[in-house]
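As a point of orientation, let us examine one representative protein, giving the amino acid sequence and backbone structure tokens.
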Amino acid sequence: MSLFWNKHVHALQPYIPGEQPRMTNLVKLNTNESPYGPSPRVLEAIAKSADDTLRLYPDPTALSLRQAIGASFNVPVECVFTGNGSDEVLAHAFRALFKDDAPILFSDVTYGFYPIYCQMFGLDYRSIALRDDFTIAPADYEGPSGGVIIANPNANTGISLPLSAIESLLQRFTEQTVIIDEAYVDFGGESAIALTQRYTNLLVVRTFSKSSGLAGLRVGYAIGSPELIDGLTRVKDSFNSYPLSRPALAGAEASIKDEAWLQQTTKRIIATRERTTQELAKRGFEVLPSSANFILAHHPTHAAQELFTSLRERAVIVRYQGSSARISDWLRITIGTDEEMNALLTALDAIMAD
């Protein structure tokens, strides 16, 4: 608290990012980062960009990157927006595209930034409870709304919705923006990007942080109708006209052009995810069906908080979210390399044998 703060800052409850501990021999499985890193082409492009041109501002329109993204998904460049990570893109979308005369709708277990953005921008919201099996039921999204946002696959659960379910939302909320947050879609979900050509109220938000292995570069993007993109651009240029550095633009463009690397690394992560799910099931864990690069796991006789603490003592870090009532006895586990997941399983065996 401070006498000098704006009065609205006192009420903010900021998002708490995943811990970035500095421990030796750490198995870090808590923030859904890629275990394999970016394409070698990305590193080469970033190195080449670090020259005398760094004295110049980057392209405020990110035109070359937007053209590459558009070509990758077969959409016009005027339908592509870029920003400093998908978090910034989402923040601009909440500000630009959600109406403030009715509540914003999203699920009760989802990405933690959604209610914070509503609080920051003075938007009312209504959280829709997941079903008992932790799935999102589009039929539960009804009534007055200033907009809808769905993480697909869903943050924290990893469960994905089929495109038919997304389309049912678009057909019911025709006068509101529907945002589909696809941070994890490359790990087994169905992308809604193709629907943006038929539904002008659909915005799909994606990131280079997960499947592209570029969490440290901070690049996100959105695809939608030119009308939606114009709204995002208006907010961006009222906040920061240069959100992406020259190295970020170069690295992201190289990444989107290396489809083979993306397919190779996501295939490895998916295979490790399925093997780990099977191994945890053998040890009595309930694991939700995931289409993401993480799994949500619960053990009926070993409390999640105790497992989290015991794993940490063995230098294995997973995510415990005790403040979220629905998943307070579940652990979210990022999928790492096979060696890292073996270390997790070995640690769990030791803990559960005590």
About this structure: The chain is about 35% helix and 15% strand.
